[in-house]
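hey
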């Protein structure tokens, strides 16, 4: 079964648009990564300042290969070309990575 990685990002209200714009303009390299299955950016509606970045992978190995390859390279450059070559200030003030193994799933009939 697949694995799920959820990156919990603490995002101050004044940085929400910045975060969403950066994700919207991302290079899209994750979609072409071996073992990648799904991505969602989840915006909080009430009671929290935490966004959830949901990704689903065929295996832990595929996730680690992405983390150590194209993800690492993308985060060493500038996000969305902002800052004229200077690395922009992070939109999130904190980050926690949750890991899960999919043990059951269902889809619409």
């Amino acid at each position: 079964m697949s694995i799920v990685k959820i990156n919990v990002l603490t995002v101050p209200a004044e940085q929400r648009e910045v975060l969403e714009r950066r994700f919207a303009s991302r290079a899209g390299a994750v979609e072409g990564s071996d073992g990648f299955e799904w991505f969602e950016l989840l915006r909080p509606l009430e009671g929290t300042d935490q966004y959830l970045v949901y990704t689903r992978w065929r295996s832990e190995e595929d996730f680690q290969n992405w983390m150590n390859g194209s993800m690492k390279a993308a985060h060493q450059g500038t996000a969305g070309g902002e800052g004229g070559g200077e690395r922009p200030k992070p939109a999130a003030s904190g980050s926690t990575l949750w890991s899960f193994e999919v043990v059951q799933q269902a889809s619409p009939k």
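Helices lie at 16-24, 60-76. Residues 78-83 have pLDDT under 50 and may be disordered.
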